[in-house]
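Thread: "does anyone have the structure for this chain?"

Original post by V.I.:
We have the sequence but no experimental structure in hand. Need at least a predicted one for the grant figures.
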Amino acid sequence: MKRNGSRTCLNRRSRFGSRERDWLREDVRRGCVYLYGADTTAAATTAASDLRLVLCTVDTPASEICAGEGRESLYLQLHGDLVRRLEPAERPLQIVYDYLARLGFDDPVRIQEEAADPDLGCMLRFYGEKPCQMDHLDRILLSGIYNVRKGKTQLHKWAERLVVLCGTCLIVSSVKDCQTGKMHILPLVGGKVVSQRISTVDLSCYSLEEVPEHLFYSQDITYLNLRHNFMQLDRPGGLDTLYRFSQLKGLNLSHNKLGLFPVLLCEISTLTELNLSCNGFHDLPSQIGNLLNLQTLCLDGNFLTTLPEELGNLQQLSSLGISFNNFSHIPEVYEKLTMLDKIVMAGNRLEVLNLGVLNRMSHVKHVDLRMNHLKTIVIENLEGNKYITHMDLRDNHLADLDLSSLCSLEQLHCERNQLRELALSGFSLRTLRASSNRLTAVNVYPVPSQLTSLELSRNLLECVPDWACEAKKMEILDVSYNLLTEVPMRILSSLSLRKLMLGHNQVQSLPALVDHIPLEVLDVQHNVLTRLPDSLFSKALNLRYLNASANSLESLPSAGAGEESLSALQLLYLTNNLLTDQCVPVLVGHPHLRILHLANNQLQTFPASKLNKLEQLEELNLSGNKLKTIPTTIANCRRLHTLVAHSNNISIFPEILQLPQIQFVDLSCNDLTEILIPETLPATLQDLDLTGNTNLVLEHKTLDTFSHITTLKIDQKPLPTTDSTVTSTFWSHGLAEMAGQRNKLCISALAVDNFAEGVGAVYGMFDGDRNEELPRLLQCTMADVLLEEVQQSTADTVFMANTFLVSHRKLGMAGQKLGSSALLCYIRPDTADPTSSFSLTVANVGTCQAVLCRGGKPVPLSKVFSLEQDLEEAQRVKDQKAIITEDNKVNGVTCCTRMLGCTYLYPWILPKPHISATSLTIQDELLILGNKALWEHLSYTEAVNAVRRVQDPLAAAKKLCTLAQSYGCQDNVGAMVVYLNIGEEGCTCEMNGLTLPGPVGFASTTIIKDPPKPTTPSSSSGIASEFGSEMSTSEVSSEVGSTASDEHNTVGLDTGLLPRPERRCSLHPTPTSGVFQRQPSCATFSSNQSDNGLDSDDDQPVEGVITNGSKVEVEVDIHCCRGRDLENSPTLTENSHNPCPEEHARGSFFGIRRQNSVNSGILLPVNKDKMELQKSPSTSCLYGKKLSNGSIVPLEDSLNLIEVATEAPKKKTGYFAAPTQLEPEDQFVVPRDLEDEVKEQMKQHQEGRPEPEPSEEDRTELPEEFDTAL
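Reply from O.Q.:
Generated one for you, tokens below.
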């Protein structure tokens, strides 16, 4: 089974034969291992490579595979990075199975299938020999004997020298003395040799098992970096030989998975710095006390529980790192290490902190105990501690904290605990950060005269502490997200305060200002303010940032009394207030205004003379008002780069295309009809959003002019699909994405309203944080993966989990270093709950979330996988010895604990999603999908209340993004709003007690609850010309069409009678054997578009024939109609229930002829022989257009004839690929006022129809008819 060639040209059939497959199926413990050749590099996938497929079991050791393949060793590469040699007893297939199980796969059979997938090689790959990786080619050791001379003159003679290229260094030595250590190590800078000796050698991330022999010849090396390797102890150049470096002072052996401490390292007495973090040590040898010169020792990320007493001999040790170990108390050896001034024990298992122990360590000033299990602080005596100045107690479980005995404390971090009360000494306090607790009281005594920063946000404070009002040097005060009802006068009039954060409280008014204050930043958003102090702008002359959004402001204070204003205000956010046109003149008093947000107010006009004076304006947001025009004087705002004015009544395109710096324009959801554009557009224009303007028609010339714009969003006409009319009844969506102040958008969204042939919908959101590649890959592939998985399993927890895990694998090389949060929502018919029509399954990793609005209340459906919000996940990452940096990021990379991609952070970062399922009811109004930035600035309740009464889902999504930006979001923000209309009043099937008419009965009009806004199609959700963020239904249907069967069930009864089937709607589909079988193939013909999605191509509607309240509405089942009996029946209505012979059950032969433009349509029985249609290619080209499903729609000039296909074709194409579904008899839907007229016409026609078969001459006189595939 040896295969030569690139792995990209191999397929399953060429790798597995039937014999091998049968052998694998017999036992799930069997599988295969792919062995790659050494030439298989990431950059040379097209080169010839030696690939072998080895069948084995989970018990097969590496030694047995090596013997069978003639190899000395096997090598394992994880995530395209490091390569390590497998031990002979290690079992390769078991390694693969364990890896997949840790990712999240549960089913042994599925694990076996995934292990055989060659795409797994991007995460886990075996080699028969050690490969050469392209990213390490610059560090490959090259050696040889060359003629070398010093200098360029003739005086310098050439001499033979041994030259070794090691990393970025050139090692030169004489051939004779190369073993004696006489050599020069010269660095290479820009490819040239720099004439100086180098003392530092960096061999990190090189998959080394031993140090290259050449390095031992040099006595100049003082620092050796062997980080991220697989160093061994007993090899010729192993760790036990490092003592040969006589001048070595610094050694980095972190992330080598040593397991045991290399004792011989303790003989390198010259060491001053030693890094042994993340090596799996459980204890330290006593010999470590021999390193008397050691000054820095890093032991983070191990399993240490104690430190040896001999460590106290290291009197020069000034830095000791033991974070993320298993210590349950502070080691006593700290008392002997008098040079240490810091205790760094983050991520351990301390539950009790004894301040008496710290009192005995007078040399310790900094204590870092974040991310422990602290619950209690013990005070042995009243003796104060005069030495500790900094303490970090973040992310613990403290309920009360009394550190008043630490009289020298300058800085305290105690965020994300469960504190109710906090007591501190104020003698030396400079910084206090205690956000995200449950504080009701904070006591500091005496008044902290040195305090400069106080952060008490996200607590339960009802008033600002009195001592904070008396702090004379306080510059920053953050008391947002509390229960404040008033602001003390002393706070606002402070002569030192420069930043005041009062948002998300219940403040009703701000005190009046008497004196000038130095305040620069004021945030009072989300309060109940009705007015701002009249003297705010005249007394706070340094104020440059003001956010008063989400209040009840009706007016604004004046900027100043004089003609020339002294205001320095630059950023003004007034979104979501009650401001009217009267506030606009006040804005003129702020000539330096750069950013102005007035969204969601009650503005009707914006005076042109006022806008003319805001010459420094760079960003203007006027969305969600009632504006009809944007003043022409906006052309004077020469620095304007962003204009957001969606959801207004603007009918005239503003004159903004002449602005030299314009970049982003959002005029969606308005009433634009035309655009007058100049001959040339500004080169800076990058994003133009015109979606939701239903009356806007862009000419080809205009589109050509806009062709250079990076992102052009316009409405697209919805493609004719078979299920669009069905699903649009129950859900519609809108999408909004905004880049904020970043130069690229790293968010992508997925929206498929007609998923799996219209029986469901899929919505997703992907946030790559800093990369845009992975979100777009997931956007393109995840729906296809879901479609495959739902065909393999009906359990939502299974197919959703597998969708995420397979998508994680399909990211390939891009997912090795990059990662993305992912959220996927799948709506499908509910088969488990008979009382519900649809079920919603939500899965997510990372920080994207989905919220369901049920009865006006938010119902969170997702879980945030971050270190700060998920304690269980944080503990899992800590147990696996990841290093969590001070900014709460795993290895300094990401705050997420689960995401797609970032495979190199395995096993700390996993792709297994959180999954929740709920049955949709009539109370479910809408679904909101958002990324991290959206939910950081909007609560669930506020988001739901903001969009509940917005008719258009696109406008709703735009509103959420606008609110987030006005509330302080500067990052990428994305929102998707899905309107749901799930209710039994939308049901039209008999099981709900609706009376179904007979063949001549009359149907009542179905009323749809809260239909979506007709002027904005759901497809126009913000992506058109750019990389599409929404998939067309035809793309999905093309993949699932093959799953439907074209074999029609033949019902043969001895009595010759067929029972009348129960009529079902899409809310209650008929149960089928397959997961994605098509709905019953019935068609409702109308003047504009049939319900199966096929256009009738009428430019003018047929008079008197309309759907849903029309004069004639005909339903025909192409599978189950009985054409032969209808031919033989004297009237159409009397014998419509008669059965047909079995041989004629496959097709029916009807014609529908409209006699004139006034009369109703008549259903005529047509003989099969008479109505045989011409289906030549020429006919298709001349009279029809090709649709995406392969059907042909005739382009006749009028609707004089509509005929149903005479026989279902045998080929698996089009809509005949559906299985047979029993349908009710053909029927008319006729208004009662025309009932008598229709009956009379039918009676006359049936009585006048000749019984004998017409002759050939008569047959040629029939009008031309066309076959329309249903």
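V.I.: this helps a lot. The first helix runs from residue 12 to 15.
O.Q.: and DSSP finds 25 helices and 58 strands in the chain.
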